[in-house]
Amino acid sequence: MFQSTFTVLSLIQQTTIMIIFGATIVDTMLKRKKHANFLNNLVELDSILAEFPSNEICKDELTSLHRQHIFVICFNGLNRICDSVVNVNLMDEHEHFYNAMQFFQTASLSLDAYYIRCLATILNHRCLPIFESLNAIGDDLKMSNSSREHTSKLISCFKTFDNVMHLKKQLSNIFGVQLLLITAFDFIISTISVYGSMYYHNLLTLYFNIAYNIPQTVKCVLLATSLDTLGNQMDLIFLKINHMEKSKYVTASNFYPVNRAMLYGMAAAIVTHMLIIFQFQMWEDSQPNIKPQNVTSIHGQP
């Protein structure tokens, strides 16, 4: 039972790696023109951002990403080498070959995830000058009146942010299938590892199974963190734009803007209160009438 289950899990794992690796290569070849267009648009965005004062190159962040994925690949390779060395007498030649092929394929998927993380980090860094410019414009508007210079800066920020949003959509369209394959690969491999750990009676085999799952989990967490950081940075810009939009109205002592939205809110509050009162009135009308009874005094007389 143990041997058959272990063989089936290994076959599923090898088949999953081969299918996802092949699908990733095919998707990359089919979208190579869109990929080139995306990189050209990114270069154009860099030329536009040269006008912003805080445009710096994110070398430190990219270097950190580089080291993280080197750790993932080296850890995976070390685990494969140890597995082959320890089980050198138990594994056939074709099993050693499959082991090396799996390392090459998983390393390619890790490099694919690393590349997507780099692009997301670059886009995230390109959002920082836009947010800082909007923040500076908002501070200037609080201190002084609006001017043509502020208007031109706002238009430039909006156009640049629109270009960033377009690049983010291109990133989703180009690498959406690859992200689906990478996350599905990590999920399937983790599921197989957790399920297979229940059948590994050998502690050494259990160790290799857990050690093989660690780099896949780290890669998935790092990829999700980078893409989440990009989304949060864009949310900050949206909130800043929304706040600047609301500041154009005349406020009632900074409590709320006096505009048509205020009228809609007042009408909604009145209707809500009327419904509550109407419900109480219906409840009172539905209660049975209680007739007053004669009250007897202490001396027995009404």
UniProtKB/TrEMBL annotation:
UniProt keyword Transmembrane helix, yes or no: yes
Cellular component, GO annotation: plasma membrane
Subcellular location: Cell membrane
Record keywords: Cell membrane, Membrane, Receptor, Transducer, Transmembrane, Transmembrane helix
BP term (GO), one: signal transduction
Membrane topology label: Multi-pass membrane protein
Main location: membrane
Transmembrane segments: 6-26, 174-196, 261-280
InterPro entries: 7TM_chemorcpt
Role of this protein: Gustatory receptor which mediates acceptance or avoidance behavior, depending on its substrates.
Family classification: Belongs to the insect chemoreceptor superfamily. Gustatory receptor (GR) family.
Protein name according to UniProt: Gustatory receptor
